[in-house]
């Protein structure tokens, strides 16, 4: 069985991984190490199987293809951020509090060593394997953006914010959070933001975002 370059199928990226087996964890850990050290193209399923201590047939039984295995790694990493994404339970929390909490965790997630390493591999392979790049985008960033957009749409419907296009507002918010910190970390592995800068940047991003989309002040009828 050879490593086939095919478009990854998000719905099948973890056909058996949901079982949470020890072997699945071993395979994901080994694959993450191999992909981030050697890149996607130079990593074989044989090498992943050897490092994981399982057979190549077991790797294919869990993930079906190298592309699906890589997508599963991205999904696994993104699940670490899921608890920070706003949901229906946050609707009664002040918007500023919810967005600041999201920003702090989102930026810390993006600049973690594991996520930066995976990001570098994705960028390196996207031009050669655009179908894989699209699958990875849908598995990670697009899913998170959809969750945040849904929250903004809810607070917009309640009049807590006023925006014509929650999808565009979501993109703007995430861009404000990132600034140039993520890019600097990607290009210079030795650079880390000074203490306090992540919180300062995300707090400023929320303040700017709310200034743009805050509802108009009620008229002053006291005069």
Automatic annotation (TrEMBL):
Residues 21-81 form the HTH tetR-type domain. Residues 44-63 bind DNA. PROSITE patterns: HTH_TETR_1 (PS01081), HTH_TETR_2 (PS50977). The keyword Transcription applies. Pfam families: TetR_C_7, TetR_N. The keyword Mitochondrion does not apply. Residues 1-21 are annotated as: Disordered. Keywords: DNA-binding, Transcription, Transcription regulation. GO terms for molecular function: DNA-binding transcription factor activity; transcription cis-regulatory region binding. This is TetR/AcrR family transcriptional regulator.
